[in-house]
Amino acid sequence: MNPVNYLYLAALLFTIGAFGVLIRRNAIVVFMCVELMLNAANLTLVAFSRMHGNLDGQIMAFFVMVVAAAEVVVGLAIIVMLYRSRHSASVDDASLMKL
Amino acid sequence: MSGLLASTTSGAEAFQFWLLGGIAVAGALGTVLLRRAVHSALCLAGTMIILAIFYLANGAYFLGVVQIVVYTGAVMMLFLFVLMLVGVSTADNLKETLRGQRWMAALCALGLGILVTAGIGQAALGSFTGVEEANAVHGGNVPGIAEKLFTEYVVAFEVTGVLLTVAAVGATLLTHRERIEKATSQREQAEARTRSGHVPPLPAPGVYALHNAVDRPGLLPDGSPSELTVNPTLRERGQMREVSADKLASLAALEQRTAEYHGTAGGPANRRAEARRSLEKREAGEAAEPADTTPAGGDADGTAEDTDTGPSDAGPADKRPPGDRTSGDQASGDQASGEEEAK
C-alpha cells in the first residue's frame, strides 16, 4: 500500500464533511461536519509530515487542534445563545441578524 | 518500522488502513446522514478515534494521544453536553426548504471530491521519507515536537495561549445571563398556588402519621387526621385506625418550638393543639381502642404489622379461623375484640 492512500482518505473525509455542511440544518451537526473537515486536514498534514520526513507538519496539525478547540468553545456558546433566544438550533431559523 | 521509510508500507499497516479506513468513512457518512444529532456525534467520535490510530501509524505519537484526549475526550463531550442542553430528541426535519438544494449540494460535493482527488493524483508525490529520522534526532517524537514548538514556533505558541484565553472569556460572556427579576421563594410559590385554586390533593393514607398502613388516616397540614384519605370501604366498616396521639403531641411540640423560634405565637400551633384536644376527647369517648392508644407496646407490633400488608390487623384477623385466634396472637386478638366493641 502506498502511503498516498492516507491523502485520498483525507480527501474523501473532507468531501463528506463539506457535503454535511451543505445539507444539514441543525447547527450542531453542521458544526460537527466542520470538525470532520478539520480532522481530514489534520490527517493530510500528518501524512505530509511523514512524506517529507520532518515534524513541521505535525506542529501545524497541533496548532489546528488548538484553534479548533477554541473555535468549538465559542461556536457552541453562540449556538446555546441562539437556542435560548429562538428555541431552535436550526440554521434556517437564524435568517435575520436581529432577534 | 522499516515500513515507515519506504514508499510502500508493511502488509499489517495496509490491512489496518483498509479496515479502519472503511470504518472511518462509514462513521463520517453516519455523521452526515443520521437524523438524530446524538447518533451523529457518536459516529464522529468513532471516526476521530480511528484518525488517532492513523496518526500513531504515521509516526505522530504525540498527535495521536492529543487527538484522543482533546477531540474525542473534550470536544466531542462538549458537543454532547450542548446536545443535552439544546434537546436530544430533536430529529432533523427532512423537508427541503430550498428546492433541489440536496441534489445541488451532492453535485457540489462530488465536484469538490473529484477536484481534490485529481489534485492529489496529479501531484508529484515521491517516495515517503518517513519520520523515523526526524523523530530520532531529539530522541523521540515528543522531544522533537517540543524542541520545534518552543524554539521555532514559540511566537505562534504564545499567540495560541492568548487565543485560548480569549475563547474562554468569550464563551463565558456569551452564555452568562444576568438574573433581572427576584427569584420566587417556596413560600411565595405555595401562596400563589393556593390563590390560583390549584390546591394540592389530600395526603395519601399514612402521610405524616406514624405508620404507612392504608387504614391510618393521613394528617392535614394543621395536624388533624383527615378521614377522607382512608378507603371508603374501610370507613364504612369502621376499620379505620386513629393516628397515635403521641405523634400528634410531638408534632404540636415541634410546631410550638418553631413558632417560638420565629417569635410568633403561630396559628398552626393553636390549631394543632385544638386537633389534639378533640382527638383526646374522642379517645376518651371510645375507650375501647387498646392496640393503638397504648403508646409503646401497641406501636412496636403495630409497625411490624403495618409494613407487610395494608389492613392486616383488621381484615385478615376477621378471616382467620377461631382456633388460630386463641393460639396466642395477643395483639390481633385484642384488636379484634376492640373492633367488635366498636361496632
From TrEMBL, chain A:
It is an enzyme of class 7 (translocase). It is a multi-pass membrane protein. Keywords: Cell membrane, Membrane, NAD, Oxidoreductase, Quinone, Translocase, Transmembrane, Transmembrane helix, Transport. GO terms for molecular function: oxidoreductase activity. The keyword Nucleotide-binding does not apply. It is found in: Cell membrane; Membrane. Its EC number is 7.1.1.-. Its main location: membrane. The chain crosses the membrane at residues 6-23, 28-48, 60-83. It comes from the Bacteria. InterPro entries: NADH_UbQ_OxRdtase_chain4L/K, NUOK/Mnh_C1-like. It catalyses: a quinone + NADH + 5 H(+)(in) = a quinol + NAD(+) + 4 H(+)(out). NDH-1 is composed of 14 different subunits. Subunits NuoA, H, J, K, L, M, N constitute the membrane sector of the complex. NDH-1 shuttles electrons from NADH, via FMN and iron-sulfur (Fe-S) centers, to quinones in the respiratory chain. The immediate electron acceptor for the enzyme in this species is believed to be a menaquinone. Couples the redox reaction to proton translocation (for every two electrons transferred, four hydrogen ions are translocated across the cytoplasmic membrane), and thus conserves the redox energy in a proton gradient. Belongs to the complex I subunit 4L family. This is NADH-quinone oxidoreductase subunit K. It comes from Streptomyces durbertensis. The lineage of its organism: Bacteria, Bacillati, Actinomycetota, Actinomycetes, Kitasatosporales.
UniProtKB/TrEMBL annotation, chain B:
InterPro entries: NADH_UbQ/plastoQ_OxRdtase_su6 (IPR001457), Nuo/plastoQ_OxRdtase_6_NuoJ (IPR042106). Its EC number is 7.1.1.-. It holds the Pfam family Oxidored_q3. Coiled coil: none annotated. The chain crosses the membrane at residues 15-34, 41-62, 68-91, 103-125, 153-174. The keyword Transmembrane helix applies. It catalyses: a quinone + NADH + 5 H(+)(in) = a quinol + NAD(+) + 4 H(+)(out). It is found in: Cell membrane. Residues 180-194, 271-285, 316-327 have a biased composition (Basic and acidic residues). It is a multi-pass membrane protein. Keywords: Cell membrane, Membrane, NAD, Oxidoreductase, Quinone, Transmembrane, Transmembrane helix. NDH-1 shuttles electrons from NADH, via FMN and iron-sulfur (Fe-S) centers, to quinones in the respiratory chain. Couples the redox reaction to proton translocation (for every two electrons transferred, four hydrogen ions are translocated across the cytoplasmic membrane), and thus conserves the redox energy in a proton gradient. PANTHER family: NADH-QUINONE OXIDOREDUCTASE SUBUNIT J, NADH-UBIQUINONE OXIDOREDUCTASE CHAIN 6. This is NADH-quinone oxidoreductase subunit J. It comes from Streptomyces durbertensis.
